[in-house]
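Tip: read the tokens left to right.
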């Protein structure tokens, strides 16, 4: 019988767990690790997010979920199956840096214009413990870098170049509606 995934509480800005470096995962196939992955996927889907990291649900472990899909905040986001990324390392990146808008489930109501590498190469383990080497570009590369930052105790607001690059979610949605 399969277990129903639980929706987890999302840590909010100011919670100490968001500022800690997460610990590597060694027990990929352990039932607690697999349960955490299922719960992270359920939680990011319920929140209509495009990614979530374990520290955001009070688990200081090097796991995050990439879950890109088009939505009101990111209408041009590519659709992908939610993917568990364990113990990731960014091994290289392109030269080009692109500024674009980001938000975070742990910082509701705020958007920031954040510089990120347009392309990255990374290695990580999948939920079965298999080593994967893969390159990511554009929006998926942005999500990967954002979630990877969570594992290092870094939040997107730490990466803004100016306070003028922060806006409310309400103003961001107005701006997105005008772009359509």
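Filled-in amino acids:
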């Amino acid at each position: 019988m399969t277990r129903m995934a639980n929706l987890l509480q999302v840590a909010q800005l100011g919670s100490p767990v968001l500022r800690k470096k997460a610990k590597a995962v060694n027990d990929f196939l352990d039932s607690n690790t697999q349960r955490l992955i299922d719960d992270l996927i359920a939680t990011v889907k319920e929140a209509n997010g495009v990614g979530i990291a374990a520290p955001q649900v009070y688990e200081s472990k090097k796991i995050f979920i990439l879950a890109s899909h088009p939505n009101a905040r990111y209408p041009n986001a590519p659709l992908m199956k939610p993917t568990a990324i364990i113990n990731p390392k960014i091994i290289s990146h392109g030269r080009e840096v692109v500024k674009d808008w980001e938000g975070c489930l742990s910082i509701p109501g705020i958007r920031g214009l954040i510089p990120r590498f347009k392309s990255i190469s990374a290695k990580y383990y999948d939920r079965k413990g298999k080593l994967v080497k893969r390159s990511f570009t554009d929006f998926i590369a942005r999500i990967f870098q954002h979630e990877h930052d969570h594992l290092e105790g870094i939040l997107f607001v730490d990466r803004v170049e100016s306070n003028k690059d922060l806006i409310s979610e309400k103003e961001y949605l107005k701006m997105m509606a005008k772009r359509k």
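The beta strands are 51-53, 63-66, 83-93, 97-102, 110-117, 119-125, 131-137, 166-168. The chain has a mean pLDDT of 94.
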